[in-house]
Specification:
There is one protein chain. The chain is of the alpha/beta class. It has two domains: about 5-195, Alpha-Beta Complex (Spore Coat Polysaccharide Biosynthesis Protein SpsA, Chain A); about 215-305, no CATH class. It is built from eleven helices and nine strands. Strands 1, 2, 3, 4, 5, 6, 7, 8 and 9 form a nine-stranded mixed sheet that branches. Strand 2 (about 30-35), helix 2 (about 40-45) and strand 3 form a beta-alpha-beta unit. Helix 8 packs across helix 9 (about 230-255) and helix 8 (about 200-220) packs across helix 11 (about 275-305). The radius of gyration is 21 Å and the shape is globular.
């Protein structure tokens, strides 16, 4: 089966160069640029990539960029490896994933292990590295790096270009609804360079996740899918309803009501038994950012306002 690659990015610099140089044995390599000012377009062209430059007068989403890459594929391409420009595909991954798809015609998407390049650089990078450690076998969704069947993508109309985040899980929901399957292999797939070293970056990324949870639940939250319903509920419970309850309690009974806030450190201690103290602390703290992201989705939808990216780099 013929394999192409689609890379999306903006101002990735040396990370994009490393990404493109690791893509051997696939053709064409299509790089979709979203308004870079660091010479990314010239760097991609110098490495033989076909460049698609998005019209940035229209609202940008990663989903829109991925669709633009799909539209640029020549006829006859059966498989496409999607990559973010801050990722490096691991040697042997594409051949391994291609072999797996050849053996199971019902699988539309296959993904593998994504690792952080520098998990030791910050607690935030370490948390993201843990985030990528998901179960192998049949899965409900994939991330931005995956090998996909072009005919399956065409069957469901590709990515939803309106989504500012969570576009891959949305795609996977729609694929599964028409009978396709998603699979995660226990094989090294990509090395990712998050470069999150500041609290504000982590907060914005987590806020974006909350927005994706709420929007995903609005699109596919009905039974039997219940897509991201539980995640949205937890974010609103811990990040919004809990603080409001504490404020109300203090207003009714005075400062003693602040004792209710002890539920948060208790929750951290409970979760620490499962994943360690740093993960537990940021999991609980992250519910406030997720709630903020969910509320931003509801507020935007209520006003009919244009979506805006939540960028953390």
């Amino acid at each position: 089966m013929n394999v192409a690659a689609i890379v999306i990015g903006r101002n990735e610099g040396a990370r994009l160069i490393a990404c493109l140089e690791a893509l051997t044995g696939v053709s064409p390599v299509i790089y979709v640029d979203s308004g870079s000012t660091d010479g990314s377009v010239a760097a991609a062209q110098a490495r033989g990539a076909q460049v698609v430059e998005l019209d940035m007068s229209e609202p940008f989403t990663a989903a829109r960029a991925r669709n633009a890459g799909l539209a640029a594929l020549p006829q006859g391409i059966e498989l496409v490896q999607f990559l973010d420009g801050d990722c490096i595909v691991q040697n042997g991954w594409i051949a391994h994933a291609q072999e797996f798809l050849s053996g199971d015609p019902q699988v539309a998407i296959v993904c593998g292990r994504r690792r952080e390049i520098n998990p030791q650089a910050s607690v935030y990078n370490a948390l993201i590295d843990d985030e990528w450690d998901t179960p192998v076998g049949e899965a409900r969704a994939c991330g931005g790096d995956a090998l996909m069947r072009v005919n399956a993508l065409n069957e469901v109309g590709g990515y939803n270009p309106e989504l500012i985040a969570g576009e891959e899980p949305d795609l996977c929901v729609r694929l599964r609804q028409v009978g396709w399957r998603i699979w995660r292999l226990d094989a090294e797939m990509t090395a990712h360079d998050a470069q999150i070293t500041q609290f504000g970056q982590w907060w914005k990324r987590t806020k974006r996740a909350g927005h994706a949870f709420a929007e995903g639940a609005a699109l596919h939250g009905a039974p039997p899918e219940l897509h991201w319903v539980a995640e949205t509920r937890r974010a609103l419970l811990w990040g919004l309803a809990g603080p409001l309850f504490i404020v109300l309690l203090v207003a009714l009974v005075g400062p003693i009501g602040l004792l209710a806030a002890l539920v948060y450190p208790l929750q951290v201690l409970r979760l620490a038994r499962r994943g360690g103290l740093p993960w537990a602390f940021f999991s609980v703290l992250g519910k406030f950012a997720e709630a903020q992201g969910a509320l931003s989705f509801y507020w935007r939808r209520l006003r009919g306002a244009e979506k805006q990216l939540i960028e953390y780099k």
